[in-house]
């Protein structure tokens, strides 16, 4: 039997709450840059230009009343070297993010990308290219759970805490816990791409069903 196929058969396709609770909590411990200055932006651009795979996520201010909704407040982009956080109230960052999402060279990987991309288009215009929805990859590989936390538990062996999810992401000043939470989600998405690749579950060119619309 093909060794890759043997490994694939040994991978569980779901994880129970009890087993998830036993896993160690992990947060991103590398370099995090909350982009705030021209120098920060130049650093991010230089890093992104040499990256072929980035983890992508967004955060949105929570809505607590019926009929209430908000546009995304933050975009997180993870490379092999750092995670960059872009506050969307800074309109000068919009062209940079539009360029990243529109360029075909690098893979932009995340979970539930269709929803994230639709919401981001309410903030700035872009035509997305080379997007990889990890939830769709997982579903195509037989996983019954396809959220980033479940996939991190199954494939990466750690638990991502949820505590800061419903905080105010539109705040001008983000707290250290918000920054750590946001960076961890984007980093985990990139780590999941690498894990899928190592297990032979991701082809060099993703199948059409695994790509977000416009990819």
Outline the secondary-structure elements.
Blueprint: H1 3-10, H2 17-22, E1 31-34, H3 38-49, E2 53-60, E3 72-78, E4 82-87, H4 94-102, E5 107-110, H5 113-120, E6 131-133, H6 134-140, H7 148-156, H8 176-198
Parallel strand pairs: 1-4, 2-5, 5-6
Antiparallel strand pairs: 2-3, 3-4
Give a verbal description of the structure:
- By secondary structure, the chain is of the alpha/beta class.
- It is 38% helix and 15% strand.
- It has 8 helices and 6 strands; from the N terminus they run ααβαβββαβαβααα.
- The protein has a 6-stranded mixed beta sheet with strand order 1-4-3-2-5-6, with helices on both faces.
- Helix 7 packs across helix 8 (176-198).
- The relative contact order is 0.21.
Distance between the first and last residues' Cα: 34 Å
Instruction: Work out the oligomeric state of the chains in this entry.
Output: single chain
* Percent range for β-strand residues: 5-15%
Number of strands: 6
Shape: globular
């Amino acid at each position: 039997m093909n060794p890759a196929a043997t490994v694939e058969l040994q991978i569980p396709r779901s994880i129970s709450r009890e087993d998830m609770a036993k896993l160690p909590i992990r947060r991103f411990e590398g370099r995090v840059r909350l982009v705030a200055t021209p120098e920060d932006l130049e650093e991010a651009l230089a890093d992104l230009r040499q990256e072929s795979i980035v983890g992508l996520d967004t955060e949105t201010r929570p809505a607590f009343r019926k009929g209430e909704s908000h546009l995304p407040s933050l975009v997180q982009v993870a490379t092999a070297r750092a995670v960059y956080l872009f506050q969307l109230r800074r309109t000068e960052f919009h062209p940079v993010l539009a360029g990243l999402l529109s360029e075909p060279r690098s893979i932009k990987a995340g979970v539930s990308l269709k929803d994230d991309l639709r919401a981001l288009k309410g903030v700035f215009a872009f035509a997305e290219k080379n997007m990889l929805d990890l939830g769709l990859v997982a579903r195509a590989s037989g996983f019954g759970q396809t959220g980033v936390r479940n996939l991190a538990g199954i494939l990466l062996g750690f638990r991502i805490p949820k505590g800061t999810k419903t905080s105010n992401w539109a705040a001008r000043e983000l707290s250290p816990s918000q920054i750590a939470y946001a960076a961890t989600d984007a980093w985990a998405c990139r780590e999941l791409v690498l894990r899928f690749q190592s297990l032979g579950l991701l082809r060099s060119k993703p199948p059409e069903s695994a790509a977000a619309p416009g990819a």
